[in-house]
Amino acid sequence: MSITTNTANNPHLTRSYVLKDATEAQDVYDAWAATYDSDLRDPSQNYVGPAAVARLVANALGTPTISPDLRLLDAGCGTGLAGVELARLGAKHIDGRDLSPGMLAVARQSGAYEGLQTTDLNKPLEVEDGEYDVVVCVGTFTHTHVGPQALRELVRVTKHDGVVVATVLDDIWESQGFKAEVAGLEAGGKAKVLSSESGDYRKGCGVTATFVVLRVL
């Protein structure tokens, strides 16, 4: 498969874009966990996606901060970069799920999460319908990771009138069915698209993503 997204020659990131299965994905991210944050904060990457998503959550809620009473799920939480940004805006009850135990170990050290669990997002979530007020998914809808069908699960576990915010690499937004999946969720009366706009994602190397904001119906 041809990968057009710029990795700025980071070997872990380059390998992460050609994963064959969940076992390989877990191995790659476990090996990367110790340096993941520093790698993506490096000016060559300047990973601004998590902070942008936290701001979009607050905007969708109509408040400058996030109420500490709300329950949030960070799906594909990795080392916790998004959880930290959400906590900075006031979130207190954040659960994180990720395929990599190594990444979850780093996320646990952040102190941003109430609960952390190993989860394959390509499978149905073991979560009740409407469990969360807000669900975010940052950095997971990318090459060879999680398919667009997972968006339906994120909507399912979100309460009526709750918010889902997800990033999808622009390289795959249309070609791998994410745009069509979002349109299908709206057409099927599952969610209303509040916004769906391309923006800076890994700003240091010019990589953009579509930031999708949904209101669950």
From TrEMBL:
One Pfam family recorded for the sequence: Methyltransf_11
All residue ranges annotated as the Methyltransferase type domain in the record: 73-165
GO biological process, one term: methylation
Keywords assigned by UniProt, alphabetized: Methyltransferase, Transferase
GO MF annotation, one: S-adenosylmethionine-dependent methyltransferase activity
Alphabetized InterPro entries for the sequence: Methyltransf_11 (IPR013216), Methyltransf_Superfamily (IPR050508), SAM-dependent_MTases_sf (IPR029063)
Entry coiled-coil feature ranges: none
Protein name per the record: Putative methyltransferase domain-containing protein
